[in-house]
Amino acid sequence: MDQLLQHALNALILGGTYALLGIGLTLIFGIMRVVNFTHGELYAFGAYMMYMWVMLIGANFVVSIALAMALGVLLGAGIEILLLRRLRGADIDTTMLVMIGAWIAMQNTEQLVWTGVAKSIDSPFPPAPLVMGGVSVSWTRLFVFVVAVALIAATWLLIQKTRLGKAMRATFQDRESAALMGVRIDRVHTATFAIGSGLAAAAGALLGPVFVVYPTIGDLASLKAFAIVILGGLGSIPGATIGGFILAFMEELGAGYVSSGYRDAMGFLLIIVILLVKPTGLFARKERIG
């Protein structure tokens, strides 16, 4: 029982960052109808920015997370303005090819700048874990979970309670009608891509100190983000949140009770089964209303 509780606790903590990845991607797809192949590289960008601020510059750990997320927001805004805005109205094949090209360019740039050597990020928290009965958790992972949950809540409040969020939901429902009502679609798209990119960078900044950072770290993160979005239902923010936790639980249970080599495979096997039963995902709606 203690082992099961330990795996459940690990999955709960990891699920928060997975949810951040999924929410960022589903926002971009739901509002912009863009398949963002650079999402994993934005995750890697956040991890490398965390390494730069903490290990090279010596900035405060918490401040470094905020700076990494802010830089991810700026990079996302730049990608939308320089690439996607010029492709507005282009067919999906063209947009996908451009985003794939941007993904490859970003990954090669990371390898050129940071080399292929894996890098670790020091944590300011004590190495001794927090022990609660028969389970334990490192202070770093606990901090990551708290920050991830706070970012998820902040994103929900932004979408539901702000003027920008109202414009995003209106664009999500009907882009043409929103434009007729005075919504600046270009600005909404830029804000959406920037927010989604910032969430991906935040996930990378949070998990960078937990694992190691290397140029291709974004590849698996991108696959997991797409899996989470498909699992939860395309365009569903609650679905992406729950999907992130489901994927984390399946990975932990697979690693603990089958084999650590099947850690990533278990989550994707579950997704295959779910899609065979419910092709639209668990939480997709007949009409997308944000």
Report on this structure.
The chain is mainly α and 290 residues long. The protein has helices at residues 2-32, 39-57, 61-84, 92-114, 139-161, 163-173, 175-180, 185-207, 217-232, 237-257, 263-277; strands at residues 130-132, 135-137. 46% of the residues are buried. Its main location: membrane.
Name its key features.
290 residues; mainly alpha; 11 helices; 73% helix; disordered C terminus
- Please trace the helix and strand order, writing H or E for each element: HHHHEEHHHHHHH
**How does the overall form come out from the CA principal axes?**
globular
The separation of the N and C termini measures 39 Å
Structural class: mainly alpha
Count the beta strands. 2
Arithmetic mean of pLDDT? 89
Rg, alpha carbons: 19 Å
Strand order of the largest sheet: 1-2
Oligomer: single chain
Family: Belongs to the binding-protein-dependent transport system permease family. LivHM subfamily.
Organism: Rhodoplanes azumiensis
Keywords: Amino-acid transport, Cell membrane, Membrane, Transmembrane, Transmembrane helix, Transport
Pfam family, one: BPD_transp_2
Question: What's the gist of this structure?
Answer:
With 290 residues, the chain is mainly α. The protein is 73% helix and 2% strand.
Show the helix and strand layout.
Elements: H1 2-32, H2 39-57, H3 61-84, H4 92-114, E1 130-132, E2 135-137, H5 139-161, H6 163-173, H7 175-180, H8 185-207, H9 217-232, H10 237-257, H11 263-277
Helix pairs in contact: 1-5, 1-8, 1-9, 1-10, 2-3, 2-4, 2-8, 2-9, 3-8, 5-6, 5-8, 6-8, 9-10, 9-11, 10-11
Main location: membrane
Transmembrane segments: 12-32, 52-77, 89-106, 139-159, 191-214, 226-250, 262-284
InterPro entries: ABC_transp_permease, BCAA_transport_permease
